[in-house]
Design a protein that fits this description.
The protein has about 375 residues and is α+β, with helices and mostly antiparallel strands. It is built from 13 helices and 10 strands. Strands 1, 2, 3, 4, 5, 6, 7, 8, 9 and 10 form a 10-stranded mixed sheet that branches. The protein is rod-shaped, with a radius of gyration of 34 Å.
């Protein structure tokens, strides 16, 4: 009997129920989209920000050098230690560097030995005219400013000298970054180690740049884990990039939360309006039900069940819409799909139910407060 009354009540007010369901659905959609995006957003945005380069740098401690006659440096065994550190799962890319001041003719230049494949991974923003140098060859990439001073072009050959060591190189590409790279010459790490006399087991690296993806793990904690794994190096966090990453994530999350709260508020107002109108329309019906013996609790139960039905239906519809919205944002902003998180669905339904039931409190209370004698007299 109760279910029949509930069904008839919903059937007789299809238009109003549809409006209430859609209002709840919009709120549920935002909750579902927010939940899905929040769980994926840190990773997605972190990957986007990794295009801006390294956010952690390893350097020798002050006053330390594996080769006291050379510039401060440390062993390339640090790269192996990184692979075995607890921070390894968060490391996206690693680029080793060995720096030295050499000569081209009478002009002093900074020679940087590195792994070009690894540099391309952590520094995709480098603009290279020509092509990237091929590993294992005598090709080099020269900074734009250095190329202008030395009058070198793509395809040019030149000889670099360091304390009697000579190395003939060709220009594969000219790089422009707007930073110190514009004044440097980049060669393969083995060539730089041979030219600068760093072919031993120690003192082969001046710096290691690391691109780490924070989010699940704060960047400061990742840096601390690296420092524990490699005690003979100093770990520095590039604060500008770290702060930019944290601020961007925080702003986007707060914006989405604010939009969700506003839409949930609008949904609550729509549900309250619908339920209030329903109570006003059914006042005589409620009075008649009480007059023939219906208890106040039973009438309240009927209206609460109606509200819960609207909440659940709106929550399911909204969750489907919300997942579609999350995919749309993922494709347009991050050029990737957003993973489906099954546990976001019950959260969306729970929030929808809470908002709907709270919005229905005043209308349901009004329904249970109807006085039969007054209502049936038409007062």
């Amino acid at each position: 009997m109760f279910m029949r009354m509930l069904w008839q009540s919903l059937q007789n007010r299809k238009g109003r129920v549809a409006v209430a369901v859609m209002a709840v659905a919009m709120g549920a959609a935002m909750v579902f989209a927010l939940g899905s995006l929040s769980l994926d957003m840190n990773d997605k945005i972190g990957k986007e920000l990794r295009d801006y380069g390294a956010n952690i740098v390893l350097v020798p401690p002050a006053g330390h050098s594996a080769n006291l006659a050379a510039d401060p440096s440390f062993s390339d065994e640090a790269l192996k230690a990184l692979d075995n550190s607890s921070a390894a799962p968060y490391i996206v890319g690693i680029a080793p560097y060995l720096y030295g001041i050499a000569e081209i003719g009478s002009q002093k230049v900074v020679v940087a030995g590195t792994d070009f494949d690894k540099v391309r991974k952590i520094s995709p923003w480098w603009k290279v005219q020509g092509q990237w140098a091929v590993a294992g060859t005598a090709q080099s990439i020269i900074g734009g400013k250095a190329a202008a001073v030395l009058n070198l072009k793509v395809g040019s050959s030149y000889t670099v000298q360091y304390k009697g060591n000579l190395q003939t190189l060709t220009v594969a590409g000219i790089v422009t970054t707007g930073g110190p790279e514009d004044n440097q010459i980049f060669v393969g790490l083995p060539i730089a180690q041979s030219l600068l006399g760093r072919t031993g087991r120690t003192g082969q690296l001046s710096q290691v740049q690391i691109s780490a993806q924070a989010g699940k793990q704060p960047l400061a904690d990742i840096a601390a884990d690296i420092e524990k794994s490699i005690p003979y190096v100093k770990v520095k966090v590039i604060k500008q990039i770290a702060q930019a990453e944290g601020q961007m994530l925080g702003k986007i999350e707060w914006l989405m939360i604010l939009v969700t709260i506003i839409i949930l508020g609008a949904s609550a107002i729509a549900v309250m309006s619908t339920m209030t109108t329903t109570v006003l329309e059914r006042t005589k019906e409620i009075g008649l039900m009480k007059a023939i013996g219906a208890e106040t609790g039973s009438i309240g139960k009927l209206f609460w069940t109606e509200a819960l039905s609207i909440a659940l239906l709106g929550g399911v519809v909204g969750s489907v819409i919300g997942f579609a919205v999350a995919q749309l944002i993922g494709k347009s902003v991050f050029q990737t799909t957003i993973s489906f998180r099954p546990f976001v669905l019950p959260v969306s339904l729970l929030v929808s139910a809470m908002v709907t039931l709270l919005a229905s409190y005043i209308p349901v209370r009004a329904a249970t407060s109807v006085i039969p004698a007054t209502t049936l007299r038409g007062d």
